Amino acid sequence: MAVSVKLDDDMRERIQLLAESKQRSSHWIMREAIRTYVEKEEAQLSFDEATLASWKNYQETGLHLTGDEVFAWMDTWGTDEETDAPPCHT
């Protein structure tokens, strides 16, 4: 599928300068920019969906950990006293 993108002169020049400095083509720079943007947005969407699922689960069950409980657990990471995650509670 062929796609065209209209860019103003300033953006085309900036892309060209960047491409030259990276010894890449303008086309490569644009593809990388689009790939990076799409991956970032997909990751954000996945995070948002997981957040909403967690919120729904909390609303249904009331199960949670406090920030202090999580931080205390994390403080044990990498030590001889490392513990498993504390159990959730209501």
Question: Can you describe this structure?
Answer:
- With 90 residues, this protein is mainly α.
- The chain has a domain at 9-60.
- 66% of the residues lie in helices and 0% in strands.
- It contains 3 helices and no strands.
- Helix 1 (9-22) packs across helix 2 (26-61).
- The radius of gyration is 23 Å and the shape is elongated.
- The model has no long low-confidence stretch (mean pLDDT 97).
How would you summarize what this structure contains?
By secondary structure, the protein is mainly α. The chain has helices spanning 9-22, 26-61, 67-75. The longest helix has 36 residues, at 26-61.
How are the SSEs placed, and which strands pair?
Elements lengths: L8 H14 L3 H36 L5 H9 L15
